[in-house]
Amino acid sequence: xxxxxxxxxxxxxxxxxxxxxxxxxxxxxxxxxxxxxxxxxxxxxxxxxxxxxxxxxxxxxxxxxxxxxxxxxxxxxxxxxxxxxxxxxxxxxxxxxxxxxxxxxxxxxxxxxxxxxxxxxxxxxxxxxxxxxxxxxxxxxx
Length: 142
Known about the structure:
Layout: E1 6-14, E2 20-23, H1 24-27, E3 31-34, H2 42-48, E4 56-61, E5 75-79, E6 94-98, E7 104-113, E8 116-120, E9 130-140
Antiparallel strand pairs: 1-2, 1-3, 1-9, 4-9, 5-8, 6-7, 7-8
């Protein structure tokens, strides 16, 4: 298998309404994409393949080519007593759950009805049509 490059770039992720969902500029830390390691969807990889240092590229992906479609099995109804009493439970609040191997899984509170809290463990950008704006800082040959 030939060596595949990595691309170091700044990225903005825009929602369909044009608002910014995420930006590496805020942290000042560019993101690294490794081509050919199957960490990227084929559609995303085909958009960035061949980019060079200094290139600016913008493209839009459907949910299945970005962060996936929203999985109804990842939406859970939990009892309010399972949450810290000092946590304000309201739609949009992000809560963290212990995942396998000590990892953290973020969940978004979707609804609070009485003692029932609906938590969505899908990626926050799942199910969204997204526009990616990339500015290539560096191309790294592996």
